[in-house]
């Protein structure tokens, strides 16, 4: 098989020891998607590759690109780290969950398009001290479409009303206006303010959401709502999510 030598720009997010001193590292890139690189000898003390493959490193990696299965890392250029993501337990946990979630939304080597920018945006925001919970909720809502779930949040799914009070209905795949609450007794029974947050973080471009601030009880309610949307429509069980939930119990 012919392997092409290629420069890719991306973020490292999962590492695993492989054979003797070799390392497997996952990288998320824009055009070449998410794939695993084999780094020969990266775990040897003298290897220069190891430091460029720490979690949350980003930069330009030069790989023998395969297009499926493993690609091989040859060298790297200009690799940096998102400050503080690696050392801070909470930030690390949120960032790991976000990357894990994105990883599950795409096939290997599948072009991520705007979702790469979304991921990078989220990591930058979390690294620079923006509330990681809110950033994570934004990613979760915006990523629904990548999982093939596209809830209607612009207007009532039944009548198209786009003003007034709404509630979220999983059965109907979107929001209901007050007049149509009766069509789903199992609707989420969210407060209007909470639905407004879900709509905002789903509908607005993420670049405009970087400084959104929401009080903690609303944030807790939208967290529960988003978790339920994921459970009932996608149903993936991620260890990184479980860990995050456990951390929150300690709060
Ligand atoms: Zn309606």
UniProtKB/TrEMBL annotation:
SUPFAM superfamilies xref list: ArfGap/RecO-like zinc finger (SSF57863), Nucleic acid-binding proteins (SSF50249)
Classification lineage: Bacteria, Bacillati, Bacillota, Bacilli, Lactobacillales
Function according to Swiss-Prot or TrEMBL: Involved in DNA repair and RecF pathway recombination.
Gene that encodes it: recO
HAMAP family the record matches: RecO
Residue stretches making up the DNA replication/recombination mediator RecO N-terminal domain: 7-82
GO cellular component: bacterial nucleoid
Keywords: DNA damage, DNA recombination, DNA repair
Name the UniProt record assigns to this protein: DNA repair protein RecO
Organism: Lactobacillus helsingborgensis
Signal peptide from the UniProt entry: none
Similarity remark: Belongs to the RecO family.
Entries under NCBIfam families matching the protein: reco
InterPro entries: ARFGAP/RecO, DNA_rep/recomb_RecO_N, NA-bd_OB-fold, RecO, RecO_C
Residue ranges crossing the lipid bilayer per the database entry: none
Single GO biological process annotation from the record: DNA recombination
